């Protein structure tokens, strides 16, 4: 193979020079995507920064809720929108997700409330009528807690009082709810100053606790000595002074209500703190009654019908209430085998004081009190049952001095001590009727009629003898007298009307005696029949 030619010598060639690069002007078309990217990034950041808080609200059902349409409002200002509505995992509830405005985030705290606003009729109030055209929305109540929260449970009904409403809440304790309900008005001097917020049973189930709210500035009139009473319906009182009707307003008659007042004779006291507990009395009379701290428990035994006497009845001394009946029982005396009726009473000794020029008398000691009452009983003080109201048949216990009462004393050894009693006015009436009926039954009415006929016959015979013996000048007079005796004797004949009428009158007297005895027995069982008459027995 022939040899390859040698490579050329490049060292002899001139050195090449690099040509400089040409630089063109920047193109404007590239700025468009750059600006778009910057704007998009700025909008994305702004969207993230402006996005409001997202919360969840749990409802029992989805009635009135619609994603993208149902709004959230606070004081009728739109603050959010429901974004999704879904069932909970256990399918028992509905979870609504809502997005709120950014400025509302600080108010999403633990006691913030939510509820669905829709047309409602509760008691005598109608709410949510505006949603008939605009649709339902979720109402919001701002809380005062400092604990932030994003998951809430909606309330079934709108709150009666908003959290930011000025005023104070108090608690009332009652034996039952009566006609009160959420939203029932609170009255002060017949002005509506608040509402019943809620109620619940006591833990032991023996009463009801009501939470009420009194608006400012009326809450300053609720003091430590304030009394509350149920002002529902009409308070009708019938006593010796006539008929008295009390009510707060037509609203309280239809929906019920609560009224409060501080007794004039008691000190105003300090303004009551929030959540102070008060007793709810049945009526104004009980509420305004002065509380008695000095109570003397005694028992009285009656041997008559106690129909019409009830716990709470007054123990009266000449028009002054000295106590009230606390309990009534029926017992069998094992010694005498008799039924006795013990009536326990609470006496207030401070209402009956010794005469003194000093206004503020110190309370009597126990020994001085016993001597005082023993002296009164020794002078004839007795307890007696009396009728307090003819319309209702109510009875009360009267303490009065009876000079003819047999000697008696207080049995301080028994617990409680026993105060002597005497038969009441109704018992005296019954005893009188029985006594009259017994005497009428014992009258020999038939014998009286026979004796009257015999007397007239004897008078006729006497006139016959006198007619033959007396002087002629008196013959005419005796003849007239004889005619009168003959007339009377003729009228008393067995076949004459007068004799028949006399027999009928005697029979009527007998039936009257029996009727009086039956009336006495009936009045003992039904004393109210003195006013209402005899009622037919219901079968």
TrEMBL record:
<feature type="domain" description="Mce/MlaD">
    <location>
        <begin position="52"/>
        <end position="139"/>
    </location>
</feature>
<dbReference type="InterPro" id="IPR003399">
    <property type="entry name" value="Mce/MlaD"/>
</dbReference>
<keyword id="KW-1133">Transmembrane helix</keyword>
<protein>
    <submittedName>
        <fullName>Paraquat-inducible protein B</fullName>
    </submittedName>
</protein>
<keyword id="KW-0997">Cell inner membrane</keyword>
<dbReference type="InterPro" id="IPR051800">
    <property type="entry name" value="PqiA-PqiB_transport"/>
</dbReference>
<feature type="domain" description="Mce/MlaD">
    <location>
        <begin position="298"/>
        <end position="401"/>
    </location>
</feature>
<keyword id="KW-0472">Membrane</keyword>
<dbReference type="GO" id="GO:0005886">
    <property type="term" value="C:plasma membrane"/>
</dbReference>
<keyword id="KW-1003">Cell membrane</keyword>
<keyword id="KW-0812">Transmembrane</keyword>
<dbReference type="Pfam" id="PF02470">
    <property type="entry name" value="MlaD"/>
</dbReference>
<feature type="domain" description="Mce/MlaD">
    <location>
        <begin position="167"/>
        <end position="227"/>
    </location>
</feature>
């Amino acid at each position: 193979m022939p040899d390859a030619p040698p490579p050329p010598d490049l060292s002899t060639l001139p050195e090449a020079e690099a040509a400089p690069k040409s630089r063109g002007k920047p193109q404007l078309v590239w700025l468009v995507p750059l600006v778009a990217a910057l704007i998009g990034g700025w909008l994305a950041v702004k969207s993230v920064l402006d996005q409001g808080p997202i919360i969840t609200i749990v409802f029992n059902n989805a009635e009135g809720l619609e994603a993208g349409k149902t709004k959230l409002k606070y004081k009728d200002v739109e603050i959010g929108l429901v974004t999704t509505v879904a069932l909970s995992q256990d399918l028992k509830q509905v979870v609504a997700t809502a997005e709120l405005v950014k400025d509302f985030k600080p108010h999403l705290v633990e006691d913030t409330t939510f509820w669905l606003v829709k047309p409602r009729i509760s008691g005598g109030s109608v709410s949510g009528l505006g949603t008939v055209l605009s649709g339902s929305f979720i109402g919001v109540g701002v809380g005062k807690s400092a604990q932030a929260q994003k998951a809430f449970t909606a309330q079934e009904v709108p709150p009666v009082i908003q959290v930011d409403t000025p005023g104070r809440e108090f608690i009332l304790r009652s034996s039952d709810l009566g006609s009160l309900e959420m939203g029932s008005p609170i009255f002060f001097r017949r002005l509506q100053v608040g509402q019943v917020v809620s109620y619940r049973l006591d833990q032991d189930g023996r009463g009801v606790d009501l939470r009420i709210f009194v608006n400012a500035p009326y809450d300053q009139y609720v003091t430590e000595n304030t009394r509350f009473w149920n002002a529902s319906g009409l308070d009708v009182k019938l006593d010796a002074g006539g008929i008295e009707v009390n009510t707060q307003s037509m609203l309280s008659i239809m929906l019920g209500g609560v009224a409060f007042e501080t007794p004039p004779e008691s000190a105003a006291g300090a303004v009551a703190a929030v959540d102070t507990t008060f007793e709810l009395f049945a009526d104004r009379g009980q509420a305004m009654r002065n509380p008695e701290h000095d109570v003397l428990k005694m028992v009285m035994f009656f041997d008559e019908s106690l129909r019409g006497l009830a716990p709470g009845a007054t123990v009266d001394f000449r028009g002054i209430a000295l106590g009230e009946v606390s309990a009534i029982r029926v017992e069998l005396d094992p010694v005498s085998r008799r039924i006795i009726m013990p009536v326990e009473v609470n006496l207030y000794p401070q209402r009956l004081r010794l005469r003194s020029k000093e206004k503020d008398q110190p309370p009597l000691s126990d020994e001085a009190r016993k001597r005082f009452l023993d002296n009164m009983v020794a002078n004839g003080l007795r307890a007696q049952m009396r009728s307090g109201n003819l319309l209702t048949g109510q009875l009360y216990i009267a303490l009065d001095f009876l000079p003819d009462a047999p000697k008696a004393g207080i049995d301080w050894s028994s617990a409680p001590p026993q105060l002597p009693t005497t038969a009441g006015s109704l018992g005296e009436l019954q005893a009188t009727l029985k006594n009259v009926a017994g005497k009428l039954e014992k009258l020999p009415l038939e014998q009286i009629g026979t004796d009257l006929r015999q007397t007239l016959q004897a008078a006729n015979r006497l006139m016959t003898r006198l007619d033959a013996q007396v002087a002629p000048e008196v013959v005419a007079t005796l003849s007239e007298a004889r005619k009168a005796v003959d007339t009377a004797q003729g009228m008393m004949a067995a076949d004459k009307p007068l004799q028949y009428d006399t027999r009928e009158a005697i029979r009527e007297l007998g039936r009257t005696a029996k009727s009086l005895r039956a009336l006495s027995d009936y009045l003992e069982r039904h004393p109210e029949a003195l006013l209402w008459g005899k009622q037919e027995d219901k079968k």
